[in-house]
Amino acid sequence: MRVTTRQKAIRDALEASGRFVCAQDLHARMRAGGHRIGLTTVYRALRALADHGDADVIITEDGQRAYRVCGSSASHHHLICRWCGRAAELPATALERWVADVSLRHGYTGVCCAAEIFGTCPRCPEPAGRGHDAQETG
Amino acid sequence: MRVTTRQKAIRDALEASGRFVCAQDLHARMRAGGHRIGLTTVYRALRALADHGDADVIITEDGQRAYRVCGSSASHHHLICRWCGRAAELPATALERWVADVSLRHGYTGVCCAAEIFGTCPRCPEPAGRGHDAQETG
DNA sequence: CTGCATGCAAAATGTTTGCACTCTA
DNA sequence: TAGAGTGCAAACATTTTGCATGCAG
């Protein structure tokens, strides 16, 4: 790779958010943070990141792509808060065993089980009047 | 409801396909079948169907919405062939137990687990050179 | 007759691509 | 200098909405 000046910033912002964010969201956040960056670059960087295996991609309930930095490329299962976007990683041994079982039972092969489970996290008890930002980077 | 002339046709076509289809796909199929119907109507009918609980909605890997008539609104889990679209219904007792378990463990509530697992069904052994149409309506 | 369902076209939204420019190696 | 990275605008695909009309009740 050549520069990664902007790409580093994008990856940085992605890591800073610490949760699944869509390209537009990340772009807006970076612009708000003072970065001079284009939407296109964010899209491209995110796609490259996901392509390289450095980021997880999920399809939200709206059909939008959301990205997140990915430490281990092994298990791709998440429990995602539909309000603040916080995502808990799931070990998913039981899930994978179940998936392998039903796949075998139905004769399906090459099964890609990216379980994206949407719910309400303990920080968002009331799904009404969202003023929530949930910017904790931990 | 008033007429349901067209809506009945849409539901019919959806049932006839017997698998997950997107609005555009269904529309094209109906037009090919001689129906005089607009894309908008298909979208609206599909949305209404899903709204009423008569159809399942999934988000494909492309981010498109795919619909399918839904007999039992209880378990919403499917093993979908990414090539021909065939979908096997999964009892998913084990999955739901696992989801309930991890949700409780992480404090998530209102969890909606619509497990859409994409793979290759036994009818599509070779995921290369797809000239496949898989138009079998049964 | 009333008024909702319908359909065409345009708008809205999310994502990708073309092309010229910038900036790093 | 060379060429990949970048950004703007346009292209593109999918879905929704506005508005006039037809058909069921």
Structure description:
The structure is a homodimer of 138-residue chains. By secondary structure, the first copy, chain A, is α+β, with helices and mostly antiparallel strands. Chain A contains four helices and seven strands; from the N terminus they run H-E-H-H-E-E-E-E-H-E-E. Chain A has helices at residues 5-17, 23-32, 39-52, 93-106, and strands spanning 21-22, 55-59, 65-69, 78-81, 87-89, 109-112, 116-120. The longest helix of chain A has 14 residues, at 39-52. Chain A starts with a helix and ends in an 18-residue tail after the last strand. Mean pLDDT of chain A is 78; it is low at 127-138. Strand 7 of chain A pairs antiparallel with strand 6 (109-112) of chain B. The first copy, chain A, binds a DNA duplex (25 and 25 nucleotides) through helix 1 and helix 3.
Greatest interface: A-B, 34 and 34 residues
Number of strands of chain A: 7
End-to-end gap of chain A: 29 Å
Work out the radius of gyration of chain A: 16 Å
As a percent range, the share of strand residues of chain A is 15-25%
The major pleated sheet of chain A works out as:
3 strands, antiparallel
Q: In DSSP terms, counting alpha (H) and pi (I) runs of 4 or more, how many helices of chain A?
A: 4
CATH architecture group name of chain A: Orthogonal Bundle
| Broad shape of chain A | globular
**Share in helix of chain A:** 25-40%
Q: Would you tell me the structural class of the helices and strands of chain A?
A: alpha+beta
CATH names the topology of chain A as Arc Repressor Mutant, subunit A
Oligomer: homodimer
State the strand order across the main sheet of chain A: 1-3-2
